[in-house]
UniProtKB/TrEMBL annotation:
Name of the protein in question: MaoC-like domain-containing protein
Biological classification of the source: Bacteria, Pseudomonadati, Pseudomonadota, Betaproteobacteria, Burkholderiales
Database matches in InterPro entries: HotDog_dom_sf, MaoC-like_dom
Matches recorded under CDD domains: R_hydratase_like
Domain MaoC-like: 192-271
Length: 294
């Protein structure tokens, strides 16, 4: 999507902006008073009932996703990133890890039923598991979204890692399996302001997505699109081209640089177990997303 940047949507993102302010305070506190080596804690779920997203926000989100005039009477299931981030942030604030070191690594969605519009949403964020590995701590958070009567209409698994100081272990050599027969479901592209647009739509204002000077000083050496943003655009390419599924799971392999053209959403034939592999391919042999659906 190109055109004007919808700055007015900022007023819909106060819950996430407040969470961001708490993250800054948490970071400063731990910098002044370093904590001992953390252990995996037991963290209670965070459960909230929130007002339904406004029509303006939904329509702007769908237009950006490439799904304008779709989902009549429903919410797109991948919009979970907008309403779940404040709860996930609150959950992560209860962990004894440095929040500025967290990176998103993937997402899985299971759609059990349509999410109705104009209905308060019941959201529950639960810490599913923590895994300590050399150089990073892997965290999986499960977010259930629904109504009071049907609380698990959409179930999301968010995969994150907290990067730890010290040397990284050498990467184990990968076994190269035979490539499936890829078919291109469709294409999409991103312009320089798409990171800012997605930030205004979801409340994820990490500056590597919209602030050029700070992004150039990051490990990415420039602006990159949110992993969830790449997922949303690829999801809608599949849906708009007739690919039907109720479960999808992807990993963010390499960020999409901004701007970026000729992004190809590719899908493989159905396997014996019902799954189909998918990927988002860029120029050359670059793979940005990889996963499966059924």
């Amino acid at each position: 999507m190109s055109g004007a940047v919808p700055y007015g949507l900022l007023r819909h993102q106060w819950p996430m902006l407040l969470t961001g302010a708490r993250v800054v305070g948490h970071t400063l506190l731990h910098a002044l008073k370093p904590a001992p080596r953390p252990v995996a804690p037991t963290v209670a779920p965070v459960v909230r009932t929130i007002a339904a997203p406004t029509r303006e926000l939904i329509e702007q989100y769908l237009a950006w996703a490439g799904a304008a005039r779709c989902y009549e009477g429903e919410l797109p299931p991948h919009m979970v990133s907008q309403w779940s981030l404040p709860l996930v942030g609150e959950l992560l604030l209860r962990l004894p890890y440095k929040l500025t070191s967290v990176i998103n690594q993937g997402v899985g969605l299971r759609i059990n039923g349509p999410l109705p519009r104009d209905t308060p949403l019941r959201i529950a964020a639960t810490l599913d598991r923590i895994e300590h590995t050399p150089g990073r701590i892997k965290v999986v958070v499960v977010v259930d979204t629904g109504t009071e009567q049907q609380p698990q209409l959409v179930q999301a698994q968010l995969h994150m890692s907290f990067l730890q100081p010290g040397p990284r272990p050498p990467r184990a050599p990968k076994e190269h399996a035979a490539e499936p027969s890829w078919n291109t479901a469709g294409l999409w592209h991103a312009d320089r302001n798409d990171g800012l647009r997605f930030a205004l739509l979801t409340g994820d204002f990490n500056p590597i997505h919209w602030c050029g000077p700070l992004a150039r000083g990051s490990v990415f050496r420039g602006l990159v699109l949110h992993g969830f943003g790449s997922f949303v655009r690829s999801y809608e390419v599949l849906v708009q081209h007739g690919v039907r599924f109720s479960e999808i799971d992807v990993r963010f392999v390499k960020p999409v640089p901004l701007p970026c053209s000729a992004l190809s959403v590719q899908i493989a034939p159905t396997q014996d177990d019902g799954w189909r592999q998918l990927r988002l391919a860029g120029s050359g042999d670059t793979v940005h997303l990889a996963g499966r659906l059924r």
